[in-house]
Amino acid sequence: MTLFNLERNAEFEQLISHLERSSNPDIRARAAEILGSLESKADDNRYSRAEVIDALVEASQDDESDDVRAAAIDALDQYGQEALEQFIGEISGQELEGIAEWKKAKVLARGLSADEPELRMAAATGLGRIGEDNVLNALVERLTDPDPRVRKRVARALGRIESPESVPALSQLLHEDKYDVRIEIAYALADIGTQNALKELVDVADADDETVRRIAVDALGRLGSIEAVEILAGALNDDAETVRRTAMFSLVQLLSEAPANASHQIREKIVEELEAAEESAAVHQPLIEILDRSTETAQRRNAAWLLGRIATEDHEAEAQEALIETLGDDDEMTSKFAATSLAVLDGDGLEGRLLELVRDDYRDEEMRVKALFVLGKVGGDTSRKRLSKFVERTDSDRLRKRGFSALSKLGGVGAVSGDLA
Hints:
- The chain has a domain at about 350-420.
- About 70% of the residues lie in helices and about 0% in strands.
- It contains 25 helices and no strands.
- The protein has helices at about 5-10, 10-20, 25-35, 50-60, 65-80, 80-90, 100-110, 115-130, 135-140, 150-160, 165-175, 180-190, 195-205, 210-220, 225-235, 240-255, 265-275, 280-295, 295-310, 315-325, 330-345, 350-360, 365-380, 380-395, 395-410.
- Helix 3 (about 25-35) runs parallel beside helix 5 (about 65-80).
- It is globular, with a radius of gyration of 25 Å.
- Residues about 415-420 have low confidence and may be disordered.
């Protein structure tokens, strides 16, 4: 089973086995990342949360790969401050349990000068979680740490603390450091969100350097503002494909970050800008890729919603296929968004594709139920005839009920129509 499938199925035991036993450091690092992303699903009913943390602590200390140790520390961060402190306590011998936060912050600040880079990384991450301003200077000084893994986590910590005082130091390194460090610095500036921080991102979004533009466009997706929508929409016409694709991914992320009181306005603005985009492939392909590969629920929901509203004739067939495959998504809201987007999208060939799906007894029943809902919206004479026969022969009460509902909407003989349930 692939790591992707292990992630989708939350197979903790097999993921830990890969982390501990794989001879490939890339696989071990990816296993650690996935274990971190599954934090919300780690409970004693399915798999011992403590055992997951223990495995990550061990990898953080003992794995021979720098990248694996770094990934394991980031995964511990997702399991919370106590998980991080367990690692810090084991590697430093310093007991952190039961002491006041401000005292704990001072202990961690001393850890920024430790010989072991893993301890410096964990100390910076822990300080970002605590968020005490009294250690801000110690963190800013560590932006010059010789280990780029430490600099990344220092930048991340400064973004969490959101202190405007760190903006000048972060801005300087945005132009000078290694690529992955610069990404964290850009994220930190977006999280701090002051005018000076945002001005820096807006300025570099128009830089001559393609790499710098991509970094800025990536970070702007965290803002959730109308201003960011306009800048990202402009980046959809960038000369570089990587910048265009990143801009589209950032727009999807921005939908997730938008505050509730501005969500509707931002959605309308994004649709307006995407419809006007000159490079249609830069708009459609990332959305289809998200539906095909992403395991992030919010991303998939937003991609499904957007695709039905901005798909052009050139990409209509691809969009239909991607949305049809999403009808059986494990997340009910994502599958509903896919169904309603198909109803909005309609277009040549959709009715035939949906009828084929409905008649296929080997396909997931949930997909077929949603397909019947869409047929009730977009079907014609062909659907009426075929669904009349379908409801007579199907053995599934749920499919029969949904088939009658679709027939009712199409003017055939059926039950009273309802929602997607």
